[in-house]
């Protein structure tokens, strides 16, 4: 599981920064399933992808299909896992709690696999996953 916690607005610049970090971890092409957020479809991201087509390829989910997006399961897990006894008092505390959550999940591959094993996200495990 690879992640990036950021406190600024999610835009094309953040997406390109994430993509650059992501491809740096692999020696083979990365196939990334994304929703149709404007940052994912922006000119800047398309230009970045064109320069890195041998390293990464985006696969877009159908319009408004949150049930197909494993990220939605990750987000729900994160919200359930945040401490209920100590609420973050500011953005920095929330970012730190979020990082702790993702670092824990990186050491729990059985839970991460579960994000992809549900009835609506199982397509990611198929040989040709993008056949909606």
Explain what you see.
Residues 3-94 form the Tc1-like transposase DDE domain. Pfam families: DDE_3 (PF13358). This is Tc1-like transposase DDE domain-containing protein. This protein is mainly alpha-helical and 132 residues long. It has one domain (12-125). It is 45% helix and 8% strand. The chain has helices spanning 12-23, 38-41, 43-51, 70-81, 91-106, 109-115; strands at 30-34, 56-60. Strands 1-2 form a two-stranded parallel ribbon. The radius of gyration is 16 Å and the shape is globular. The two termini are 24 Å apart.
**What are the low-pLDDT stretches, counting only 5+ consecutive residues below 50?**
none
* Overall strand count: 2
- pLDDT averaged residue by residue: 90
Structural shape: globular
Question: Beta-strand level of the residues, as a percent range?
Answer: 5-15%
How would you spell out the order of helices and strands?
A: HEHHEHHH
> What structural class is derived from the secondary structure elements?
mainly alpha
Task: Kindly report the spatial arrangement of strands forming the biggest sheet.
Answer: 1-2
Helix content: 40-55%
**Counting H and I runs of at least 4 residues, what is the number of helices?**
6
Largest sheet: 2 strands, parallel
Organism: Streptomyces sanyensis
Pfam families: DDE_3
Protein name: Tc1-like transposase DDE domain-containing protein
InterPro entries: RNaseH-like_sf, RNaseH_sf, Tc1-like_DDE_dom
């Amino acid at each position: 599981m690879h992640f990036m916690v950021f406190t600024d607005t999610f835009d094309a610049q953040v997406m390109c920064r994430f993509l650059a970090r992501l491809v740096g971890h692999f020696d083979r092409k990365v196939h990334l399933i994304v929703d149709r957020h404007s940052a994912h479809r922006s000119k800047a991201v398309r230009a970045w992808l064109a320069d890195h087509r041998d390293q990464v390829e985006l696969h877009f989910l159908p319009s408004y299909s949150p049930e197909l997006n494993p990220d939605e399961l990750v987000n729900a897990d994160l919200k359930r896992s945040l401490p209920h006894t100590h609420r973050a008092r500011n953005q920095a505390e929330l970012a730190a709690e979020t990082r702790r959550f993702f670092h824990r999940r990186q050491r729990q591959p059985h839970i991460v696999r579960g994000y992809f094993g549900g009835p609506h996200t199982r397509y990611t495990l198929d040989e040709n996953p993008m056949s909606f």
